[in-house]
Specification:
Number of strands of chain A: 15
CATH architecture of chain A: 3-Layer(aba) Sandwich
CATH topology of chain A: UDP-N-acetylmuramoyl-L-alanine:D-glutamate ligase
Largest interface: A-B, 39 and 39 residues
Strand content of chain A: 15-25%
Helix content of chain A: 25-40%
Shape of chain A: globular
Low-confidence stretches of chain A: none
Oligomer: homodimer
Number of domains of chain A: 1
Distance between the termini of chain A: 40 Å
Radius of gyration of chain A: 18 Å
Structural class of chain A: alpha/beta
Mean pLDDT of chain A: 96
């Protein structure tokens, strides 16, 4: 079992979907990553920042899942990062209604002493310089560094982003972002271009259409579980990344074959995340449900063809 | 080994994609279905109609693949059905530039005597009344009837379409069409509504995003093989249906587990179809290539997770 170091936002979200809307609720990339990874009972820590408006109960909830929260800085006179967004009917596109950076504007991440030798590092979506700073604080070279990012950083901080991309083993990115970053429409070609920037493993997330893992000439695909309804897609990508990195930390096996399993675990956990608003479904997740749905995942994808 | 009866268009297509354009080339649903199914070395026959402008060489090419062409009527003073279309950059949407029904306008399908007891019937995309007429000519109840259709018939002949849907075992339909036919956005719900119309098995084709098979509470998913380039998507859906029905005819096994394999074979064959213009790739397909790509398909989708 390895230690998992997570950096990313811990935040407030206000979400509107065709099924309803929320007030300010718990959100943030690191929150979703941490909750997903906690299913593998690994030691993990979150590096993040919140304001004095952030409820202690949220921190307690993370702590109860054995997530080390000592490196979530609380800025006494600061306000927590806030995002609000509205999803369209197809749930695959959304408009950002408001973004308040607040305490994120001057965030200097500090990796806790006990995690400077973490074997697995999950760099959640944040400014690439913050992600870089975390990597630079590691005293041991991690066994696996996973990066999640988004188009926003390609638009405003591409050179910094390229610096961090050059230093990671795995990048997770959605299809449109992969096209933007690579300049290639074909995802096979896009993955090859991105791999040349540094990451030996490229994961392209396609939302409801599943996720692809590329490594050299190999590819693996996991679908999203077909659901009656996608209630709220917020955090699905982060949950996927948390499931992926948590499983790798649990198994300590960075082979391509084991990454296939990590992708499946990530997809499986993400299928729960979207069933309720915000983190609600992930907070109440039972081990038996996860196992049962993994079984459905197998039935959905596994077949028996004898090759002659 | 069962007999496969195919009804559908045998036609001329003129295709424009971002990679180039063609003059009038061989096309038609039954053509693609027949070529795909011929990979399983089963006895098959096509029921269709062409004009006197249709090259004998095309018919000969089908005959060389052991497809019975005696029920492809040649109208002496008629012109062959013609379709031309232009694909957009994303290859998932296209505009129809021209449709000339020609000999299709007064087509009365005649099932050849030797195929009135065919165990598998593949109703390719055509007017639902033509599809119904074929079913009514069967002297034995087929083991499996597969229906392919499209939104055009939902727009202009919905009641006739519903009559044929009520009589088939499997329907193959794309995602947008499934939504239109069912009035449900969620594909899980759409499949349930469509199953209530008759077909016990509902296949929803999602183009480059793969295909889903639904049956009662079970689901199976096969991705499209990630390709460097999709050169021309024309006929991919028909090739998928031909691979599916051809494999069922070959194996004579209509269980859900075997249909999973049929879906995989259909997806596998469709991945070749889109690599060249029109039928070119399917005409030159070697058994070894098909097997090799099936192996890639397994590597792409199969994983080993032990469930506790």
């Amino acid at each position: 079992m390895s230690k998992l170091l997570i950096v990313g936002t811990v935040a407030f979200d206000a979400i509107e979907t065709p099924f309803g809307k929320t007030d300010k609720i718990l959100g943030g990339a690191a929150t979703y990553i941490g909750l997903a990874a906690s299913n593998f009972n690994i030691p993990s820590a979150i590096v993040s920042v919140v304001g004095n408006d952030f409820p202690e109960a949220y921190l307690k909830m993370l702590e109860d899942r054995n997530i080390d929260i000592s490196a979530i800085e609380i800025v006494p006179d600061g306000k927590t990062f806030f995002w609000s967004g509205k999803y369209h009917n197809d749930m695959n596109s959304r408009d950002t209604l408001e973004t308040q950076l607040n305490v994120l504007e001057n965030f200097n991440p500090v990796v806790p002493e006990g995690y400077k030798d973490a074997e697995v590092v999950m760099l959640g979506n944040l400014h690439p310089l913050v992600q870089l700073s975390v990597l630079e604080q590691m005293t041991e070279k991690p066994k696996l560094v996973v990066l999640d990012t988004m188009n926003f950083w390609m638009d405003v901080a591409l050179e910094d982003l390229k610096k961090v991309i050059a230093k990671v083993d795995v990048i997770t990115i959605n299809d449109e972002e992969a096209r933007q970053l690579s300049g290639e429409y074909s995802l096979v070609k896009a993955a090859r271009v991105i791999a040349e920037m540094g990451p030996k493993y490229v994961v392209i997330k396609k939302g409801e259409h599943g996720a692809l893992l590329f490594h050299e000439d190999q590819a693996f695909f996991a679908p999203a579980l077909p659901l009656e309804e996608v209630f709220d897609p917020t955090g699905a990508g982060d949950t996927f990344a948390g499931g992926f990195s948590g499983y790798i930390a649990r198994t300590e096996d960075v082979s391509f074959e084991n990454m296939k399993n990590a992708i499946v675990h990530g997809s499986n956990l993400a299928s729960f995340c979207v069933e309720k608003f915000g983190t609600e479904r992930m907070e109440g997740l039972a081990k038996e449900e996860v196992q049962k749905r993994l079984q459905r995942f197998k039935e959905l994808t596994q077949f028996e063809i004898e090759l002659s």
